[in-house]
Write a structure and sequence with these properties.
The protein has 650 residues and is α+β, with helices and mostly antiparallel strands. It contains 13 helices and 35 strands.
């Protein structure tokens, strides 16, 4: 039995348990209640012009309501649990969207990152941010926004208070599954236990307009842009080059190598193991005997300096010991666990958290006094040694223990990530973070997770563009694409070919970062190529990037790095191109992403009348066509500038 509903473009079938949204671009089909047998249909409890109230298996109640908004429509789907909160359920409300209806974008950062997301495969699991590199399997990464966008002109936004599980194409099943479960790992303090699953479906005219509406109505845009020097010149990190063997001498040698070869810098980042212990903000005097002298030398070479840091204070640290001796901070009559600096466990003591460098306590960023204390620890070394800023690592929700004690009750585990990032953002525009949740408003760089030094979509070179597009479409325009060539885990340098192709791609992204350096290969070829692209990034790419960075603070949902459909939503070819990207509406970039290849097919998007000028050859081509077997030698990357008719506005 099919029921027309809402704006006459939605039908609900109570027997097949489907909701179908028809748009001018196509349709999306939602399977309702996939947690129960297909033979278990719905019965209608109540129906009005804009609401259908259904009763399903186990007396669960599902309500579908229509909210017309003029230029778009919103359909809210809500599952209500009629069972007592203490009862054990046989199953949990689960709905799914077909991946074959249009193409889907957005959602999480993942280890295997593709654009669109249909070819990913992640089993149903709690939808929280995790350290995906440490897990090395199909888990969600450091960014898990509850936003999915469809090329047929729809988006799905899941309510923040829902204890959400998500599965994407599990075992190739061809669907995105949303499931609501009582799960403390996801929603520690659910304010409405009766609502197990709730989400909005936004329906508009096309994918771009729906995206902009979704961003405007549900998310915040950046309030400003980060430090401009970080856009223009490379970050030089010690991590991949030296790992934990960093020292005062290696830092100074590193800086002199960079300077002697004529490279500019945004900053030199001193990474892991500069301090005595994790959580102690003192340079290790064995490795860094004279940090002030080091800083003076770096200043003389015009380097700004940042330090790597985390929210963890290891059990060996002097800082943690002193905090425990003083019984933390008291704030009125609250019990100690609620007034401490650190997230507590089942007792008053800090919870012991395992992370990749040992065991420690984690600062309770829901406590304003703890956040202020954390800032003071960093501000002291910043002031004493003239450090410029910090690289803040970790912050994923998985590090928050289930038996948690925080000063402020958090409704969603990722709210803790949000509190962490909001705290550290107070250090200004030079901050970089690798995690976040609904922190799109902050004027700081978000870093892709540590990349592997390989060519693959599994966190290698081919994942760069899909990750950049995904982060941009969920509202983070200021993207730092991690280190050129990857992190060289395993001790081997990336191949020369891989490294050069990585340089070429990163040169057209918002920021560049080196750690494996070109002169580790040679000065004659690789260093020369690197200098060419660093200079091109500064002189040609950065002015364009900055224009669109500033635009992102004015217009909701305006990424800097954009998918090809951005300039022509009528062209279905653009929906599946995931190895090219646009800088704003002005530059099309088509790199080589396959080993041993010096040509590729390139698609030129855009409406009728647009043309594209090859910036290498000067050739001009019409839009909406493929260039087959386009030659791109190892030292080159294909990029084109848009030539638009005066009246055209994409």
């Amino acid at each position: 039995m099919s029921l027309s509903f809402g704006a006459d473009n939605v039908t609900v079938d109570i027997y097949s348990k489907t909701l179908t949204v028809a748009t001018t671009r196509g349709k999306i089909t939602l399977d309702l209640g996939i947690h129960v047998s297909k033979t278990e249909g719905f019965t209608i409890k109540e129906r009005t012009e804009d609401t259908i109230h259904l009763i399903g298996f186990l007396n669960d109640s599902i309500t579908i309501s229509h909210h017309p908004r003029g230029e778009y429509d919103v359909y809210t789907v809500s599952w209500l649990d009629k069972a007592p909160s203490t009862s054990r359920r046989m199953s949990w409300p689960s709905d799914s969207f077909s991946l074959s209806d249009g193409h889907w974008y957005g959602g999480p950062e993942t280890l295997l990152q593709k654009w669109p997301i249909a070819e990913s495969s992640i089993p149903l699991q709690p939808y929280i941010s995790r350290d995906m590199v440490s897990h090395k399997d199909a888990v969600y990464g450091s960014f898990v926004e509850r936003y999915f966008l469809n090329s047929n002109g729809c988006s799905v936004i899941i309510d923040e208070n829902v204890p959400l599980w998500v599965g994407i194409n599990e075992n190739g099943d061809g669907r995105i599954v949303l499931s609501g479960r009582r799960d403390e790992r996801v929603c520690p303090h659910n304010t409405n236990e009766n609502v197990l699953l709730k989400y909005d479906i936004i329906v508009g005219s096309d994918v771009k307009s729906v995206h902009k509406i979704s961003m405007r109505e549900y998310f915040q845009r950046p309030v400003a842009i980060p430090d401009e020097r970080m856009f223009r010149y490379p970050i030089w990190s010690t991590w991949a080059r030296y790992k934990q063997d960093v020292s005062q001498q290696s830092v100074l040698d590193f800086a002199k190598e960079i300077d002697s070869r004529g490279f500019q810098n945004s900053q030199l980042e001193i990474d892991d193991m500069w301090s005595t212990k994790y959580g102690d903000f003192l340079f290790d005097d064995t490795k860094f005997p004279e940090p002030r002298k080091m800083m003076a030398a770096l200043r003389k070479l015009d380097f700004r300096v940042t330090l790597w840091t985390t929210p963890f204070f290891n059990v060996e640290s002097e800082t943690l010991r002193k905090c425990l001796d003083h019984r933390w901070i008291r704030d009125g009559p609250e019990p100690p666990a609620q007034a401490s600096l650190f997230v507590s466990g089942t007792s008053d003591s800090p919870a012991l958290i395992r992370w990749w460098n040992g065991y420690g306590a984690m600062v309770d960023f829901t406590n304003s006094k703890a956040s202020e204390w954390y800032i003071r620890q960093h501000a002291t070394i910043l002031k004493d040694l003239s450090i410029d800023s910090f690289k803040f690592d970790a912050g994923e929700a998985e590090f928050l223990p289930v038996t948690r004690g925080t000063k402020r009750e958090i409704h969603h585990a990722c709210d803790f990530s949000k509190a962490y990032v909001e705290c550290v953002s107070k250090f200004g525009g030079m901050v970089e973070v690798r995690s976040g949740y609904r922190t799109q408003n902050l004027p700081i760089f978000v870093r892709m997770m540590d990349k592997y030094s390989n060519w693959s979509y599994t966190n290698g070179l081919r994942s760069l563009i899909p990750t950049c597009l995904t982060l941009g479409i969920v509202g983070y325009p200021f993207i730092l694409p991690d280190m050129i060539g990857g992190n060289a885990y395993g001790g081997s340098l990336p191949t020369k070919e891989l490294y050069i192709r990585w340089i070429e791609i990163t040169a057209f992204m918002p920021s560049m970062q080196f750690s494996v350096v070109p002169w580790q290969y040679d000065d004659e070829t690789v260093t020369r190529i690197a200098k060419k692209y660093v200079d091109l990034h500064a002189s040609y790419v950065t002015p364009i990037v900055l224009r669109y960075a500033k635009l992102s603070t004015i217009e909701h949902g305006s990424p800097i790095v954009r998918p090809l459909w951005w300039v022509n939503r009528e062209d279905s070819v653009t929906y599946t191109v995931g190895d090219e990207f646009l800088i704003g509406d002005e530059v099309l970039v088509a790199p080589i992403v396959h080993e041993g290849t010096t040509s590729r097919d390139i698609y030129l998007p855009g409406p009728e009348g647009w043309k594209w000028k090859d910036q290498r050859t000067g050739e001009i081509y019409s839009s909406s066509q493929w260039l087959s077997d386009y030659e791109i030698p190892l030292e080159e990357i294909a990029f084109f500038s848009a030539i638009k008719p005066p009246e055209n506005d994409a």
